[in-house]
Amino acid sequence: MAENARVIVVTSGKGGVGKTTTTANVGTALAALDKKIALVDADIGLRNLDLALGLENRIVYDMVDVVEGRAKLRQALIRDKHTQNLALLPAAQTRDKSAVSVAQMQQVVQELKEEGFDFIFIDCPAGIEQGFKNATAGATEAIVVTNPEMASVRDADRIIGLLEAQGLHSPQLVVNRLRPEMVKNQEMLSVQDVQDVLGSGVKLLGIVPDDKDIITSTNRGEPAALVKESMAGQAYRNIAHRLLGEEVPFLDLEVRTSFLENLKKLFAVRR
Amino acid sequence: MKSFLERLLGRTDASTRGIAKDRLRLVLLQDRASIPPEQMENMRLEILQVLQKYVEIEEDELDMKIERGDGAVALVANIPIRRVLS
Ligand SMILES: Nc1ncnc2c1ncn2[C@@H]1O[C@H](COP(=O)(O)OP(=O)(O)OP(=O)(O)O)[C@@H](O)[C@H]1O
Ligand SMILES: [Mg+2]
């Protein structure tokens, strides 16, 4: 079997910014484009990726079982409900991050490569400790997820430095939970602002709006990427195309301010 | 001083967006320039070695630190010289 897998870690530093959501959606979107995808939940002890994919009831073995020899990799891999192209390697829920070492993680990734997947995505836990080191160990590319919000961008910057130190250069950036309305009102950092402060070494991969579809589709266990009319779903489908090297324009999320509104604002200030 | 045009476009640094961007810029500058103590000590020793080729230094009085000012980070060193070697 050809071993051409791209191994991409999805990371952020700060917790709760959308790593798991991004992993599930981008993986699902790429599978729909007929790529063979493996999703690895590296958040050991805080298993979540199974929920995003609606696969929580199918788990028999997990990554720690594989690492400790209780199960073969193929036994632990769960086929997705929607597509034959997607498989999940779940995290252990009752263990902690120290249950897997860097070397063991690399071994798991190597075995996944031998299975002939096109993409292997590793959903990284929050933080910069052991879990981060494990999740990045087998990766050759990185996606950094951030929200247009100060603490998240700061942590992203830190993570970018740490990735660099691990030889993972020029990570790709996903700005998640953008609220165009707030940006328009000068109440939220814009994507350009985020790029400005993070610097030119980071390439923009996608802009995902804050969208209730993410929550409702997680409720159903069906990633929003499968929902045609979903804005966030579209944003994730676009990311999938960009990962395949296609040029896709960024979603026009800008809420245009009319000339009149600006005039009003101007006079409001001057009064 | 904001230009008429900038005000027309609704850009003002007093917005929380502008404030956030400015604060982020500064804090990232600081974060990126923070050097672990061990590395700082190594750097201090190496700089010292270079200087000692040319001047005799009051080692006890030597002071070297990273300082953060308005929008910039600098390595500030105060190195008392006893005499110049020739
Ligand atoms: N674009 C979005 N719009 C609305 N809600 C979102 C969006 N992205 C993520 N969320 C919500 O934010 C929460 C956190 O997302 P997620 O679990 O993907 O983050 P995470 O980075 O994986 O978190 P952790 O650090 O805990 O692993 C979830 O409840 C998710 O539904
Ligand atoms: Mg997560």
Could you explain the architecture of this structure?
The complex is a heterodimer of chains A (271) and B (86). By secondary structure, chain A is an alpha/beta fold. Chain A is 41% helix and 15% strand. Chain A contains twelve helices and eight strands. An eight-stranded mixed β-sheet of chain A has the order 3-4-2-5-1-6-7-8, sandwiched between helices. In chain A, a hairpin with a 6-residue loop joins β3 and β4. In chain A, α1 crosses α11 and α5 packs parallel to α6. The model of chain A has no long low-confidence stretch (mean pLDDT 93). Chain B is an alpha+beta fold and 86 residues long. Chain B has three helices and four strands, in the order αααββββ. In chain B, the strands form two sheets. Chain B has a two-stranded antiparallel ribbon with strand order 1-4. Chain B has a two-stranded antiparallel sheet with strand order 2-3. The chains are: A alpha/beta (271), B alpha+beta (86). Bound molecules: adenosine-5'-triphosphate and magnesium ion. The site of adenosine-5'-triphosphate has 21 residues of chain A, from α1, β7 and α10.
CATH topology of chain A: Rossmann fold
Give the CATH superfamily of chain A. P-loop containing nucleotide triphosphate hydrolases
What multimeric state do the chains show?
A: heterodimer
Give a short account of the largest sheet of chain A. 8 strands, mixed
Judging from the principal axes of the Cα atoms, what is the shape of chain B? Answer: elongated
Radius of gyration of chain B, Cα only, in angstroms?
A: 21 Å
Number of domains of chain B: 2
Radius of gyration of chain A in whole Å, from Cα? Answer: 19 Å
Q: Reading side by side through the largest sheet of chain B, how are the strands ordered?
A: 1-4
Distance between the termini of chain A: 72 Å
Amount of helix of chain A: 40-55%
Low-confidence stretches of chain B: none
- How many domain units of chain A? 1
Class computed from helices, strands and strand pairing of chain B: alpha+beta
Largest protein-protein interface: A-B, 22 and 19 residues
Q: What is the number of strand segments of chain B?
A: 4
